[in-house]
Amino acid sequence: MMRYIRLWLSLMRLSFRGAPVLTAVTLAVSVLDVFVVAGYAIAARHLVDTTVTGPASVAGLVALGVAVAFALTMVTRDMLFNLVGTVADRVGRLELNPRLHVAIAGIDGLEHLERQEYLDRVTVLRGAAGSLMRGCWGVVATVCGIGKLVVTVSLLGSVSPWMLALLAFAFAPILADARGQAAVARAEVRSAEDYRLQQDLFDLQVRPASGKELRLYGNGDRVARAQAEAWDHAVSQRVRARLAAGAWRFAGWAVFTLAFTGALALVVRQVEAGAGTIGQLVLTVTIAATLQQSAQAVVTTATDTAGVRRYVEPYLWLQDYVAEQRQEPAGTTPMPSRLDAGVAVEGVTYTYPGTTTPAVRHVDATFPAGTVTAIVGEYGSGKSTLVKLLCRFYRPGAGRVTVDGQDIAGIAMAGYRQGIAATFQDFGRFAVDYRTGVAVGDLPAFDDDDRVGSAIEAADAAGVVAALPDGVRTQLGKDLGGVELSEGQWQRTALARSSMRDAPVILVLDEPTASLDALSEQVVFERYASRSRRLASQNGAVTVIVSHRFSTVSTADQILVMHDGEIVERGTHTELIRLGGRYAEMFELQARGYENKEKKK
Ligand SMILES: Nc1ncnc2c1ncn2[C@@H]1O[C@H](COP(=O)(O)OP(=O)(O)OP(=O)(O)O)[C@@H](O)[C@H]1O
Prior knowledge:
The chain is an alpha/beta fold. A six-stranded mixed beta sheet has the order 6-7-8-3-9-10, sandwiched between helices. It has a four-stranded antiparallel beta sheet with strand order 2-1-4-5, with helices on one face. It folds into three domains: 321 residues, ABC transporter transmembrane region fold, CATH 1.20.1560.10; 186 residues, P-loop containing nucleotide triphosphate hydrolases (Rossmann fold), CATH 3.40.50; 76 residues, no CATH class. The site of adenosine-5'-triphosphate (ATP) has 12 residues, from helix 14. Its main location: membrane.
C-alpha cells in the first residue's frame, strides 16, 4: 500500500513540475466538484425559504447565488473531464514517457529486452504513460467522489436521519446493473464458440481457396445453413442476456425511485407538521436526484482506477529493476586504449534467466592481442552468448572476462563499450536517414563526413547509397515514409555503423554477412581483414568472428569450436583438420556441399 501511495505522490510531483498551472487548476476544480451539488442544494433551499419569508431584495440576491451554483453544477463535470484528459496526456507524453524510455534504454544489460516476462512488462509500459497519469487522477477523482457523497449525504441527514438510508438505495441500480452486465459477459463467453464457428463458416464461403472446393463438391448450401444456425444460436443467447440485463436495470431503478419517493413523502409530512420548510423539500429533491449519479461516479472511477494496476505493476517492477541494476558496483578503471596481453575468458558459465541449462559452461579461452579468433559450432552451441559476454551484455554466473588481466566488471561501462566495434546477426534497422544510421556507430565522430564515408566504404555499402533516391540523406524504413532496404542492404548498413569507430580494441563480428551473397561476403571480409590487421598493429586489437562459412574461418589465427556450450576443439585450421574431429567433419561437409553445387552448375 505504501508503495502505491509513494508512486501516486511521485506522479503528482511530476505533474506539478511538468504542468504546474494545469495541475493546480485540475485539483482546484476537483475539490470544487465535491461541493457544487451541495452548494446548489443549499442555495436553492435558501431561495425558497427567503422567497416565502424574507424580503424580496434578499431573495433576488440568493436567486443570483442559485443561478451561479446551478451553472457550476452544469459545467464542472465536463470541465474536469477535459482538464484531467489534458493534464494526464500532457504530463504522460512530455514528462513520464521520456523518463520511462530513458530508464529502459539506460539499463546496461539486455535481460529486460530478451527475457519474455520482462519484455512483456516493457512492452506494456511503452504506451502506458498516459494511462498511468490518468490512473493517478483517477485516485483524485475517487477520493473527491467519496467526499462528495459524504457531503451530500450529510446534508440529507440534516433534514432527517432517515434520509441516510437513501444512500444504500442509490447503490441498488449499480448492483443490479453489475448483475445484468455480468450475465451479458457470461453469455458472450458461452456464445463465443458459436460466434467463431459462424465466422469460420462465413470465411469458408467467401475465400477463393475454400470457395473453389465448396462449389466443386456442391457443399455450399450445407455450409450456409450451418453458418445460419450457429449465428442464430450465438445471437439468441446474447439477446436473452441483454433482455435480462434490461430487466435488472429496471428493477434497480424501480427500487431507488421507490425509496426516493418515500423520502419526498417523509419531508412533505415534516413540512406539513411544521417541523420542516419547503426549502428543505427542495434541498432533498435536488440532492436525492443526483445521489445515484454521484454513487455511480464513485464506483466507475474506483473500478477504472483499479484497472490501471495492469500498468502500475510493470512500472513498479521497472523502478525496482533499474534500482537493482544501479546497485551493482560500477567499474571505474579506464578501458585500455591499446592491448598488450589481450582478452581472456576464464571459467565462464552463463545461464539465461528463466532457463536451467547453461548456454555456455566452464569456458576458458584467450584472445591474444593483435589476433583474429573465429568461433564455429552448430546452431545453439553458445557462440553468440560468448560474444555477448565479451561485450558485457550479461554478467557471467561464474568465472570472469579480463582485458589485459583486468576483470572487465571493474572497467567503467561507457569506456568499455567505447572500446568495442561490433556487428550482430540480429542487427538494428534504424528508421533514420542513411547517414545517421551509420554515424551513430561513433557519436563523437557523428559530424565527421570523412569518417562516415570511410565506414560506408569499409562495409562495401557505397553501392547501396548510390541506389538511394537522396543518397546518404535518404530516410530509411517504410513506417516513416522512407525507403525500405533489403536484408542484405540493412546488414551492410549495420556493418558500416560498426566501422565508424577508428580505434576499437575489441572487434566483434557475429555472423556479420549472413544476409550477403558469397561474392559480397568475400569483398566485405577482405576489407574487414585489412581493418583487423591495421587495428592489430595500431593498438593490439583482438578480432572475434562468429561464422558458419569456412572460407572466412580458415584464415583466422585460432579457431574455437563450440558444442553444447563448451569449447571442444581449438587450434588453427590446419591443426584442426589434422585432428580429424568435429571441425574437420563440418569443414568436409561444407566443402562437399560447394563441390555438389559447382557440379550442378
Ligand atoms: N535470450 C535468451 N534467453 C534464453 N535462452 C537463450 C537466449 N539466447 C540464447 N539462448 C539459448 O542459449 C543457447 C546458446 O544460444 P546462442 O545464441 O549463444 O547459440 P549460437 O551458437 O550463437 O547459435 P546460432 O548459430 O543459432 O546463432 C541456446 O540453447 C539458446 O536457445
